[in-house]
Amino acid sequence: MTHRVERPLPRALAQTIALRGPIVLRAATAADEAALLGLAELADRDVPRAPLLVAEVLGQVLAARGVDGTVLADHFLATADLLDLLELRARHLEIAAA
After folding, report:
1. pTM of the model
2. In angstroms, rounded to a whole number, what is the distance separating the alpha carbons of residues 51 and 67?
């Protein structure tokens, strides 16, 4: 039997998320290729190895996380909260797969 422990988000993260508005965390698709290449160019890095999770705000992909933990984000915007959420979601998916 697995016990699930619910933990609230840290207060600062919860406040930042509330101010940002709707955030969509999802698996990247082929339609995200241009956005991912743009983020990689901003960061002067390669796109992380698939599968990837992306954080989308108002229809725009602002951050991504690869299966290996490598991240991309638009560093000209405040994206630390999105990277935190992507990390939490990746952990949830890893636990669910175990």
Report:
1. 0.79
2. 6
**Cis-peptide into 10, omega within 30 deg:** no
pLDDT tens-digit series, residues 42-74:
989 999 988 999 999 989 999 999 988 999 999
Contact predicate 86/68, CB 8 Å: no
Q: Enumerate the β-bridge partners of residue 26.
A: 54
Rounded alpha-carbon distances, angstroms, from residue 96 to 2, 10, 80, 84, 89 = 10, 22, 25, 19, 11
**Mind listing the domains of the chain with CATH numbers?**
20-97 (3.40.630)
Please, what sign has the CA dihedral across residues 4, 5, 6, 12? negative
Q: What is the DSSP letter of 69?
A: S
Helix boundaries (H) for 3-79: 11-20, 33-43
